[in-house]
Amino acid sequence: YESVKKRFLEAKLDEYENIELFQYIYDMPLRMAAADLIISRAGAITISELARQRKAAILIPSPNVTDDQQTKNAKALADIGGAYMIREPELVDGKICKTVAELLENSKIRESMERSIAGFAPLDSDKLIFDELMRLAKGGK
């Protein structure tokens, strides 16, 4: 965090009121809800939060997880147009900046991504879980 903060200040990014740097975000649901675009890793919980809030995202999967699960998560969303995936080795030549600019300048692409990612979070998941528990309790298979 300290090395990133130093570079953040050197680049004078602190002079922009819509850019903030945090060591840890404690109110993630609120901040995510306010964002037009999310840049994130691609863990399962993060994917479910993005889907539930229907947020356009650039996913940068961590290569350091078991069985490369984050890449699989990110690819599943990218394949249906629900997110952009950029692997760490691809983070060269300003690719992330170009991708962010493209998405922020084109609301139609973001809206399409939001519709696509929404399919990963059914609104009635509590009912689906309850129905499955009832089926299993009755000896269903």
Percentage of β-strand residues: 5-15%
Count the beta strands.
Answer: 3
H-E string = HHEHEHEHHH
Question: How confident is the prediction overall: mean pLDDT?
Answer: 93
Describe the largest sheet: 3 strands, parallel
Ranges where pLDDT stays below 50 over 5 or more residues in a row are none
Helix content: 40-55%
Oligomer: single chain
Number of helices: 7
The class by helix and strand makeup works out as mainly alpha
Distance between the termini: 50 Å
Alpha-carbon Rg, integer: 18 Å
Which of globular, elongated, flat, extended, rod-shaped describes the shape?
A: elongated
Task: Name the strands of the widest sheet in spatial order.
Answer: 1-2-3
Task: Provide an overview of this structure.
It is a single chain. With 141 residues, the chain is mainly alpha-helical. It is 52% helix and 6% strand. It has seven helices and three strands, in the order ααβαβαβααα. Strands 1-2-3 form a three-stranded parallel β-sheet, with helices on one face.
Quick gist of this model?
A 3-stranded parallel beta sheet has the order 1-2-3, covered by helices on one side. It contains 7 helices and 3 strands.
